[in-house]
Amino acid sequence: MASSSSFASNSQHCPRWKYDVFLSFRGEDTRKTFTGHLYEGLRNGGIFTFQDDKRLEHGASISEELCKAIEESQVAVIIFSKNYATSRWCLDELVKIMECKTQFGQTVIPVFYDVDPSHVRNQRESFAEAFSKHESKFKDDVEGMQKVQRWRSALTEAANLKGCDIRARIESDCVQQIVNQISKLCKFSLSYLQDIVGINPHLEEVKSLLQIEINDVRIVGIWGMGGVGKTTIARAIFDTLSYQFEGTCFLANVKENKCGMHSLQNILLSELSRENANYVNNKEDGKQLMARRLRSKKVLVVLDDIDHRDHLEYLAGDLGWFGNGSRIIATTRDKHLIGKKDALYEMTTLADHEAIQLFNRYAFKEDVPDEFFEKLTLEVVSHAKGLPLALKVWGSLFHKRNITEWRSAILQMKKHSNSEIVDKLKISYDGLEPVEQAIFLDIACFLRGREKNEIIQILESCEFGADIGLRVLIDKSLVFISEKDTIEMHDLIQDMGKHVVNIQKDPGERSRLWLAEDFEEVMINNTGTKAMEAIWFLYLKGLSFTREGMKNMKRLRILYIRDGSQNIWADSICHNGSMEYLPNNLRWFVWFCYPWESLPSTFEPKKLVHLELQSSSLRYLWTEITHLPSLRKLSLSCCVSLMQTPDFTGMPNLEYLDLSLCSNFEELHYSLGCCRKLVELNLIWCDGLKRFPCVNVESLEHLELHGCSSLQKFPEMKNLSSIQYQTHITNLDLSFLTDLATLPSSICRLKNLVSLDVSFCYRLESLPEEIGDLENLENLDASSTLISRPPTSIVRLNKLNSLAFAKGKSDNGQVAVYFVFPPVAEGLRSLEFLNLNYCNLIDGGLPEDIGCLYSLKELYLRGNYFEHLPQSMAQLGALRSLDLSYCYRLKELPDFMGMPNLETLNPLYCMNLEEVPHSIGVFEKLAELTLTDCERLKRVPTLWIDSLKCLQLKKCSSLEYFPDIRGSMKLELEIHMLGSVIRDLNSFYNSFQLTLYQNDISISDSLSQRVFTILHKGKRIPSWFRIKGMDSSVSVNLLENWYVRDNFLGFAVCYSGCLIDTTAHLIPFCNDGMLAMTLELGFFYHLECDEESTIHPFKKKWDGESTIHFFLVPFASLWDASKANGKTPNDYGIIRLWFSGAMKEFGFRLLYKDELEIEALLQMRENNDESAERCTGIRRSRYDNEASCSSGKKQRSHSNIQGSSVFENLQQQVEPPVSSEILRLNRSFPEIFPSWR
């Protein structure tokens, strides 16, 4: 085999593929052997394959249908056999395939079936005999002989491609190899599709309705009864076609959404834009936002299981919301939800043979049934009537059953042969044990969609065998575990479960309630009974009920009432006293906004495991000790009226206590120390808490005291000396304890402590000397404290990953206490993050051996006062980010040769920095270099950095030369230079590969569409700008045939005054379907132009001087052929510039290659008011005498000047400005001057 590859690059004119594979073969050789097997393998793999099953291979040439099929196939498989070349039909196919490979980038895979590849390549043996006959036939026909030669060339080219020689190989292995190869080429995984019975016909039908090859936007509905496989087909289509779209989103179970339409819009925007979108607050705003964000994006969206017109209206209401080529697929049970103009595909049930195959897989775990069960199998399948869900459920039911059990179950099925599917599914329910039935009904009525672990906890609290019960339900296909680890079930199965409960007409007689209105009816009428086991619902408005409504619900085990708005601060109506009765059998009790001041005194639920009364009106739980031996979690978060915590003596098994945001209680009950199994204690923002009892830390892992601002002393920890090696606490959050002055040394005995946060403890002056004993500590945050001398033992924390002592930025400048970091001494071996921002570091404050922090990746030293950095810093080989901004006294940077991984260097506002080490120029990974406001910086070394994406040189007023960045020039590179003065402009142009000599300006390909701007001191517009004027606009009337390809470069603009937005319009001579070309040369942040303004960026340095702004605008950045309606640039006659603010004067000039002889373009001489420019070697443009200019008010030009009539009709001609990708060298500076926004 030749080594030439068959992977052709995709052409710009590549069509949208309709087929995945086209098979070319000699029918009489391989149709019933290899080709047939390959075709079935491709179909089973979900690969959409074109095979001409009815081909007769007669006629002079192949049909147009086959030509089109070849063109619309992503991959062509050519099966060469001994008689392949005898068929002119096959040879014509081959020629067409090779043409498509060249033209469209089609992938071609040759397969050599019982032939030697060299015989195909060189036309030997049977191929030689075949061509001998062809040449004999066409020997007197010139065109025929030319065709024979094309056949030979195509055979040679195809045989040279990488393919599959199946001689002496197992045929099935070759088939699988080809299927695997094509699966990878088609860019999606097909493995799971192989197990879906009968999917291929549905895939092909839906693909034909989608018509991916057409560049429009369309909606396709998939309609059918529940359980028929709509979602399965939609998912398969989604996985198959996703790679062809810019954005994709599969919005599952739309009708189950309980959080409002805007939440679905947020999900859709997040998935399609690949950004975290959580800013849609109402569905109307969501429609407008979707239209704006998605209209230019080709997307694939699946709206699964919609049941209301609002779903389409607010998620895909207008095809104009989406970019060309987008496809929306909606699955629904309601045919009328799909618009009449949209394509609709009806999902039908499985054919008999497919239904049998599917049932067998579940009943016997294979496609072929046991012969003893064959007749019984046909009986079951006939009752399922091809419904996939019923086949799966019944197949699981009959699995491992004997014949007697089969016959008994079939008799039950026959009784319901004409009933609804729900009744059929109930057979599976009836086959469950009582506990399994209870688990199933709990999931069907209210637990579906929740996390598996949470469901297991709830079921275990009810003393159900949750793990075993769930496994039985999964095995019987009644539930399944989703990719998100939630418990799910099919809609029909859920409906069946709810039907079982709703057999009782009276809600009070039912075992479960999940609707708020049913709960209100039972409570108001006091009709609850012993049958009630669980109440679980969300409500969106106030509830009506009585105190004694639950008096008869003796067996109630689950009570879950929650506000559906998910607002933790939801208003609750406070009722004096307490509810009269709550069932003592409760195991899981959640009541969001519980409206009474306390719980009933008779409520002693000894089996209660979970008690959560978030945002309630509680003032206290009980007045006396209540024994809750089973309670593991108690959550009273956001109970702002809570005045005292309960007595914990009766809660020996409590593991989780949440009192966060309870702001009115002052002390925890002393009995908390009795909770020896307490794992997590959350007291975040309990800002009224003053006193804390003794804490038993034998089991405690998480202690959250964040924001307890009234707590003056850290709580003592009982028996630390005896259990110092057995403590389990891992996270200790003491942040925002604003009155905390010291930490007890006993903290250092918490050997398992992983995270310690004392940030914003404003009075804390020191850490315990023994802090180094915390051998497992990984994160230590002491930001915004008074700590200035960390203990020397801190360097022994060799597992420490993150360390922060950052202070807030001081308004008064330097403070009295200097920060000193102890010598590293080869400690802190795992430290990756170190933040010492605004720590008042001076020379000597950083250890001289800081280079020993070999793992350090991020170092933040912002706002310190050192002049020099330790020399060992050059040894920080793992460092990726170094922040030295606002270090005003820093004079030099360290040598960077030892920092090969540095990606971000940020020394902005280092006003005394004079130079940057040359070693920075060879970094391989540096992406961002920020040198803003380095006033004394004169030079930046040559930067040969491929990774550089952002270079900031703003306000470097002493910069003499623009750095040589030709080795770093990439299309995405941003350069910011606002306020910088470059005295040698040739260095600037050289860096951008602009040669300004011998009548030529050339721009590198990567920059041909960029707009460059330069800012300089000066008063006068250079004379090189022949067209001049004043006021806010200028229009230049262009000559006929003004545009000369490869000669016209663009135009240059110059104006004096402050920085303003500028918009350029290229306007046609006449309105003949052409649109104006618009380019915004805008700035996102504007400057104050008031001469008396104290915040003008140049007022301080350039007082009394003006600024001159230059734009170099390549023509490619303005011209947009898509708006020209087939016209050329010479059909446009006016260039108009709008200036959005006041300026003193402007200049304009067209740029042509053959007129420029420039030694130096705009050499500015400092402090020379008489001559602000030096331009030499410029001869008068032959175009200057012919172009004309007009401006709003005062005009002066070296060319002919016309009146303002040019402007009168421009309002109708100019299109609204559109955004354009522009590289602005003086882009913006919001971080430095926020008031200019």
TrEMBL record:
Q: Which residues form the TIR domain?
A: 17-186
InterPro entries, A to Z: Apaf_helical, C-JID, Disease_R_plants, Leu-rich_rpt, LRR_dom_sf, NB-ARC, P-loop_NTPase, TIR_dom
Q: Which UniProt keyword terms apply here?
A: Hydrolase, Leucine-rich repeat, NAD, Plant defense, Repeat
Q: What class of enzyme is it?
A: hydrolase
One GO term (biological process) = defense response
Q: Which domain of life is it from?
A: Eukaryota
Gene Ontology molecular function: any one? ADP binding
Q: Which Pfam families match?
A: C-JID, LRR_1, NB-ARC, TIR, WHD_ROQ1
The UniProt record lists the EC number as 3.2.2.6
Catalysed reaction per UniProt?
Answer: NAD(+) + H2O = ADP-D-ribose + nicotinamide + H(+)
Q: Under which name does UniProt file this protein? A: ADP-ribosyl cyclase/cyclic ADP-ribose hydrolase
Q: Which organism is it from?
A: Nicotiana tabacum (Common tobacco)
